[in-house]
Amino acid sequence: MIAIDKECEAVSRLFSKKSVRAKYPVYVKSENPIFKKKGTSYDLKNLREYQPFDDLRQIDWKLYGRTDRFYIKEFFEEENERFYLLVDTSASLNIFDLEYYKTFIASIAYIFLKLHFTINLVAFNYRVLETCMNVKDEKNISRVIRFLERLRFEEKTDLVSVLKSMGSRYKPSTILLFSDLFDRNLHPEILSLFRRSFLLHFYTAIEELDLKFAETEIEDQELDKRLLLSYNAFNRRRVLRLEHEFLSRFNRRSKNYHYYRIEGTADRVPFYWRLLESLYV
Amino acid sequence: MFSFFSYLFLLLIPILLILIVRLKRRQRVVYSHTFLRSFQDEKVLDYLLRTFQIYYDVLFDLLLALVLAMFLAQIVRFTPRRTAICIDGSYSMIQGDVQTPLERALSLVASGEVSEDRYRLFLLAWDRRHGESKLFRLRELRLPEGADQTTLTGTVRTYADNLQQRYTFHNIDIPTLQKLFDGGFRRVVFITDRFPSSTTNLEIVEVGGAAQSFFYPSSVYYDFSSTGFQILLQRLNYERPIAVLRYEEQLKDYKAIPAPEQRIPGSDLTLIEIKEEGLYRILGPGLDYIYNLEIPRIEATVSGRYSEILADVLPQIVGTDSEALIADLPYDGQTGRRLARKIRRLGTQHYKYVTLIPQNHTPATPLIHPLERSFSQPSFAELPAGISQLPVGSTHLFFQDPERTREGQTPLVYLSYLESDHPSVFSQPGAEELPGWKVSPRHSGITSLVYTRKNDIIPVNLSAQEFFPVSSEGNLVFEPRQVNPLPYFLILLVIYLVKLAFLVRFRSGKPAS
């Protein structure tokens, strides 16, 4: 059962009064200004001659005074930032508390909706599986919840190909990647495809598995492989070293992504706060 | 007979069971292999190391099983062909006018004629403290470089004299040599004057020296019917009359007394009868026999039908009110342990003799073996000669070994039974080794010396075989040690210690919780 954290209401209320750090409300669909969507902003897009189907209110009367001809002034569309919430549904996620995972995503989606952002949810494993696009307004949170409830966690992950496909298909400027990042080929450099990225790394430390010093079989449900290990002092040191190397890849500070590691079932609210702080000044 | 593979199979069963239990109890977790891939992409050596860490204990268990199976199947025996040279330390070895057999034996050893291999030198002699034959390790007999015959003779004589002073040349028990085989010697050279058996796996070197002219008292007893002491002698080419001396009261002087000899037809036996009590000395060739002849009288309370009959035919037992008691001990076939406990209990009540009888049998006559011709077999010199008929069954005079019993509460057990009635437990030689019932004819023979000392009779208990070519002792084939357990023990210990070391290494430190 997915529930929205009750603290989300307060968090979103606090951040609604803050100004956004960058020009996120301006939404630019295309790089070429000619093809940008027209709208009601104050940014001038185009001037053209009046056509019979045009609204009379759009006629630029000052220009008519100078040229004695009717011209229409077109402006760019003004729209809040759209966030892409990429939800990893590979089999490796099964080692986590999935309810916690889904609640986390749903709560963040709710906060964004509350802050009048538009969100697009994309579920993936080795490919994009399902999408829930253009969710606006907090009333539509039920769409998000239904989407999350439908998710099945299976198959292996291919984060690199999914991110590449997302970049070319939707050209999102900001993504929030919810994943365990268990992909051998993943490297943070791939995130340069996006203007801003937020990696929400759900992670269970191997020490939390409470392994005894004994014969241990580690099963990878994604790869359907088993690793038989005598978990002793030597191998424990080796495993911890590998774990450290794995985590240190994402810990590097880079300007194009923000990294949050959520270990176990940690308190979610601080992460909401930190995430929104990264968005707002 | 189990083969190596049978043992191995049996030993592998518990290892397999442990392996199955381990498999069932194996810790299983679900986790991604993403950063553990180096475990799977490892080289062959790393893979072997990881597998070793998992199954090292099984590997060591298999090694232990393999070594144990090899030990049990005796595949590798670790018994080098070591040589022991043992010199006979019996009485006859020190008899001789010019050169004793012992000196001849030592000369052979010193000249290296006995064995060219490296060897260890032993002496099989009498252990006076424990009353049994014992092997004594001797230092090597070394001759100076370029020693001539005179030096050899002198060195050997000195060595022989030292041996005679230090050790008791008396009876020997040849089966004691089994200890050499048990000790890992595969080749045992036994140097003796005359070896009684032809069937043996000892390497026998006979140096000769058996007395050509000799006599030996086989038994001394008091005959109540003729009211005289009868000394039975066995002769070997000894034709001269036997001189008997009687000591005076103060033991300061002695005089020869007439001792008519009576040949027993059909044998080499001669009977000498002495009427009076006293201390006597029989002069023999090179050895005198001293007897304190005293009419044996044992005052005892007799209880029980069978014991009464026994007391009637043993005239030395006088029925009076005495602390000594001869009583029937009904025996209904219980185990040797229970019987021993029963006899010990009687010992605490000052019972000196116990007549062990079958419970459902009341014999008309006691079954006593005539012991006159028993030589040094378990015998009792005071038994009358009148009882000559052989019993249907066998009779033994048993003493429990005083060294093996508690508090010395050991009564004499006179065991007599009919062949048809006697429990099989006593008819088997092995039965004498039952726990709690440590008796044996050998010990009883020795212990009889102790007992008879009370009656001041000093029998010379040398074996007749020392002097007479009696029937061979039968089979004197020794069992060589099949396998030397020490190397196996060390190998097993090392493997186990290495296993423990790995266990400590891998299990040391606690995983963080």
Overview of this protein structure:
Chain A has 281 residues and is of the alpha/beta class. Chain A has 2 domains: 7-14 and 80-279, Rossmann fold, CATH 3.40.50.410; 33-76, no CATH class. Chain A is built from 7 helices and 10 strands. In chain A, the strands form 3 sheets. In chain A, strands 5-4-3-6-7-10 form a 6-stranded mixed β-sheet. A two-stranded antiparallel ribbon of chain A has the order 1-2. A two-stranded antiparallel sheet of chain A has the order 8-9. In chain A, a hairpin with a 3-residue loop joins strand 4 and strand 5 (128-135). In chain A, helix 1 (7-16) packs parallel to helix 3, helix 1 packs parallel to helix 7 (269-279) and helix 3 (98-114) packs antiparallel against helix 4. The longest helix of chain A is centred in the C-terminal third of the chain and has 19 residues, at 233-251. Chain B is built from 11 helices and 20 strands. Chain B is an alpha/beta fold. The two termini of chain B are 54 Å apart. Chain B folds into 4 domains: 4-78, no CATH class; 82-206, no CATH class; 214-293, Sandwich (Immunoglobulin-like); 298-466, no CATH class. Chain B has helices spanning 4-24, 37-40, 44-73, 101-111, 149-166, 178-182, 305-313, 336-348, 424-427, 441-454, 485-507, and strands at 27-30, 82-88, 119-127, 132-138, 185-192, 203-206, 214-223, 228-236, 243-247, 254-257, 261-263, 269-274, 278-283, 288-293, 298-303, 317-319, 325-331, 353-358, 395-398, 412-416. The interface between A and B is medium-sized, with 41 and 28 residues. Strand 8 of chain A pairs parallel with strand 1 (27-30) of chain B, so a sheet runs across the interface.
Summarize the structure.
The complex is a heterodimer of chains A (281) and B (513). Chain A is of the alpha/beta class and 281 residues long.
